[in-house]
Amino acid sequence: MPAATALQSPRPRRAVPGAFAPDDFAMLDRLGTVVPLRREQPLFHEADPAEHYFKVISGAVRSCNLLADGRRHVGDFFLAGDFIGFNAASTYIFTAEAVTETVVVRYSRRHFDAIAWREPHIVRHLLELACKSLSAAHSQMVLLGRKTAEERIASFILDLVVRNGVDDRIMLPMSRTDIGDHLGLTMETVSRTFAQLRKDGVIELKSSHDVTIRDRAALEALAQAD
Amino acid sequence: MPAATALQSPRPRRAVPGAFAPDDFAMLDRLGTVVPLRREQPLFHEADPAEHYFKVISGAVRSCNLLADGRRHVGDFFLAGDFIGFNAASTYIFTAEAVTETVVVRYSRRHFDAIAWREPHIVRHLLELACKSLSAAHSQMVLLGRKTAEERIASFILDLVVRNGVDDRIMLPMSRTDIGDHLGLTMETVSRTFAQLRKDGVIELKSSHDVTIRDRAALEALAQAD
DNA sequence: CGCGCGCTTGACTAACTTCAAAGATGGTGG
DNA sequence: CCACCATCTTTGAAGTTAGTCAAGCGCGCG
Predict the structure, then answer these.
(1) C1’ D6 / CA B179, Å
(2) Secondary-structure breakdown of chain B: helix, strand, coil percentages, each rounded to the nearest 5
(3) CA nearest to A163, candidates A64, A86, A63, A76
């Protein structure tokens, strides 16, 4: 059961069901401020007071956690339409940074919550989205706990394809290091695994960030749909 | 940020904030049927229609996912007070099985939802709980993606200690294999790592299921609080 | 054109897994 | 109450996957 790994507001081309009905966000959208971000620019840091939510308009954002000695984990990549900061308590539980040039909308959490709390159907939608996000987290835990490097990369590619709603080609906005930190691998292993999949005719790499799927069945077999 | 890995209803000795206020579940509890379970008995299987929620009264339940070739992942252990099935869509996303002799309360999902949906404050509580669960899933992904075997075991022990609200001693209801499948390790590695921690004076093992913490600071250092 | 950064590739290493066997534990029936 | 048996755990030794260290490549940008 593949699932989007982030909360989402409506986007016609997105193949994910259960997103907000368009008018749910109508009044909420008016609260938002458009913010452009440079490559690597942080939206917020872990443990900062959580004063805003964000929605990605274009580009990509990653969520990171650092261990004491510098090991990094990338929890999620947020793409156009994805909602960020949703699961924050009073402080953010991860750092969020733009992967590429990105545009987001920033919402005051106070205002957003004030409106959302008054509208039971919005709260219900948020709950449904949280549950979808939990389900995606579940899949990612299976991946991190039990899948091989090849299976992780296959799952990652298929997940992006589904989230993009495109049939067979994706542009990766993130680096090999980002992918490795998301999948519990090193940059080198990610690189070698892409090379292996290319050699096996499963994917084509027009450039290191431009992936075309050549053999979707093989990719799905590797991803081990559970 | 240690967090309980499962949704919870109130339990006085539990050190986890944000659980339901006692009366929130008052009317919901009346919907429940008490069900005793034998060791290894399933509550439900992955992909079954999700017709019930459950709450653990005593004992322990695990959630499992199987890959095609038999590799197993244990997503969570649910202990007394924990709520199960919450994040299900129309079908369950994992199999739930009793780890030991266990007693649960079973709720009709239809009735539960009918009441919960009518009570905005209950929906808000459920949303908060879902967010806590997401936060716990986040920590688990960091563990699975980036921690060593020793760090995983240390984190696991501390998590159980916090969830039990006990200071320095825990009874593990689950097998070494269960622990391994939860932490992305093999049974043998789990066993060797417990032995290592004992040898280092960090824990004491009165039996293989009875763990006493001897050096909490060392354990916390290993767990790499993030 | 050349510089820098990210990607690739190779050789070696380490951590964890696998395979195997012996040692504990606990439940059951005599 | 004790002995037996199945099951779980521990421990050892060898194997494998992915990590580490290091060098070279190539693309994009100034």
Answers:
(1) 21
(2) 40, 25, 35
(3) A76
Does the CB of B124 have a partner CB in chain A at under 8 Å?
A: yes
Residue B36 backbone zone (phi > 0: left; psi -120 to 50: alpha; other: beta): beta
B152's tokens:
């995983």
Q: Is the pLDDT of residue B3 over 50?
A: no
| pLDDT over threshold 70, residue B190 | yes
- B contacts of A144 (beta carbons < 8 Å): 141, 144-145, 184
- Nucleotide with minimal C1' distance from the CA of A183 is D18
User: pLDDT over 90 for what percent of chain A?
Assistant: 73
- Residue B166 CB: number of other CB atoms within 10 A? 14
Least confident of B24-33, B146-155, B179-188: B24-33
Chain A residues with CB-CB distance to B126 below 8 A: 127
Distance (Å, rounded) from C-alpha B62 to C-alpha B98? 6
Q: Is the pLDDT of residue B29 over 80?
A: no
Distance A149 CA to D10 C1' (A): 30
In this structure, of A215-224, B1-10, B21-30, B105-114, the range with the lowest mean pLDDT score is B1-10
pLDDT at residue A128, rounded to an integer: 87
| Chain A touched by B94 (CB under 8 Å) | yes
Residue A46 token pair: 């872990």
A226/A37 Cα distance (integer angstroms): 37
Q: Mean pLDDT throughout A218-225?
A: 92
The answer on pLDDT for B10 being more than 70 is: no
Distances (CA, A) of B35 to A55, B57, B91, B104, B161: 44, 9, 21, 5, 27
- Residue A33: per-residue pLDDT: 94
Distance CA A68 to C1' C2 in A: 38
Q: Give A192-214 as a DSSP string.
A: HHHHHHHHTTSEEEEETTEEEES
Distance (Å) from the C-alpha of residue A124 to the closest C-alpha of chain B? 7
Contact flag, residue B188 CB and nucleic strand D, below 7 A: yes
